[in-house]
Amino acid sequence: MELKFCCAWLYAISKYNKYGDTFQIHHILNALEKIKQIGFETTEIEAMGRNNLEDEWNARKRIKEKLSSLELTTNNLCAVFPELMESNWKKHIPLFEKSADLANYLNCETIQLDSHMPPVEYVSERPYDETIKFDVDVKIRIEQGPNTFNWNSHWENMVNSIKACDEIAQDRGLRLCLEPRVHESISNTDAILRLFDWVNSENFGAVLDTGHLHAQKEIIPLSVEKLGEKIFFVHASDNDGRTNAHLGVGRGNIDWEGTLKALKKHHFNDYIAIDIGNLPKPYDLDQEITHSIKYLEKINTNLFS
Q1: What are the average pLDDT values for consecutive 10-residue runs of the chain, which has 305 residues?
Q2: What pLDDT score was predicted for residue 106?
Q3: pLDDT value of residue 74
Q4: CA-CA distance, 224 to 229, in Å (whole number)?
Q5: Where do the DSSP E strands lie in 13-132?
Q6: What backbone phi and psi angles, to 5 degrees, belong to 58?
Q7: Measured CA angle at 285 (ends 282, 287), to 5 deg
Q8: Can you spell out the DSSP letters for 30-50?
Q9: Which residues contact 58 (CB under 8 A, 6 or more apart)?
């Protein structure tokens, strides 16, 4: 089985401890240099909110020139807009259109959405607001009465928004993918399978995020078996299943042999992004990136050579 690796944008977020509006263009350009220095030839990139997208759009020529000078390519753009999953999503569709135009300009193959946390009242901190936090105890309040949160209405909004985004992506020659994440509206394999049925598009697929799904107590090879050829992209990280930590591959207890066997069975030949970050001491981020690639390559060689 041929393994194609790329760098997930969590590396850049963790390297500079920046997110959303605070992630400025010079951080992006420096991050691309770091990504190349540790050995990657391909990376994903993110547009983290309206202002970050606008900055990237205005600097798109500089970003593309930096990529070209580094001989670095982009495969995926993650469009991070919680507004797209809310009741007034139509108002915010131009954000996705511009994101898709940027992805197309940067020669990406896929554009990614997240389902985001449901629009309910939170009485705890939220793990994806100002930065990406793992091991957060999320608490919400479900209210009663008119004009309060209703799951069926929320589901309908998500489906209709994703259908609209999928048409936009297809018009630009991009495949659309979504990543199930802990605490979000689509948080596991079976939820995205249901979403596939409702969206009903061959152009719409999944990001298999091993760290999030393992924290959801899923058996990753079984997740691969369920999703099959609907897996467009893999985010590889590890943990012990108790939290959604994104540790280096092999630092937790995910069944990587079974995962690679399942991916091979379903003829997966797209990118595996090394998606590690926010590491506890004593782990070094760059060293863990290198370790993760070597770990997967060794398993792959032992299994299939």
Answers
A1: 97 89 93 98 97 97 99 98 96 99 99 93 72 72 80 97 99 98 96 99 99 97 99 98 94 99 98 96 96 98 95
A2: 99
A3: 99
A4: 9
A5: 42-48, 73-80, 110-114, 121-122
A6: -70, -25
A7: 90
A8: HHHHHHHHTT-SEEEEEEESH
A9: none
Q: Could you give the CA distance from residue 262 to residue 94 in angstroms, rounded to a whole number? A: 38
What per-residue confidence (pLDDT) applies to 131? 58
How much is the CA Rg of the chain, to the nearest whole Å?
Answer: 18
Domains of the chain: 4-304 (3.20.20.150)
Q: Are strands 73-80 and 42-48 parallel, antiparallel or unpaired?
A: parallel
Of the CA atoms within 13 Å of residue 229, those in its CB half-sphere come to 4
Q: Is the peptide bond before 282 cis (omega within 30 degrees of 0)?
A: yes
Which has the closest alpha carbon to 66: 109, 34, 93? 34
SS3 label, residue 304? helix
Nearest to 83, CA basis, from 67, 99, 72? 99
Could you write out the DSSP letters of every residue in 187-256? -SHHHHHHHHHHH--TTEEEEEEHHHHHHTT--HHHHHHHHGGGEEEEEE-B--SSS--BBPTTSS---H
- DSSP-derived secondary structure letter, 185: S
CA distance 286 to 268: 26
Locate 121 and state its tokens: 């009242």
Look up the pTM and report it: 0.94
Q: Which residues contact 257 (CB under 8 A, 6 or more apart)?
A: 299, 303
Return the H-helix or E-strand segment holding 271.
strand 271-274
Selection from 81, 89, 88, 86 nearest residue 52 by Cα: 81
pLDDT (0 to 100) of residue 69: 99
123 contacts 140 by C-beta, under 8 angstroms? yes
Helix/strand/coil for 268:
coil
Q: Which two tokens stand for residue 83?
A: 């507004």
Give yes or no for a contact between 251 and 289, defined as CB atoms under 8 angstroms apart.
no
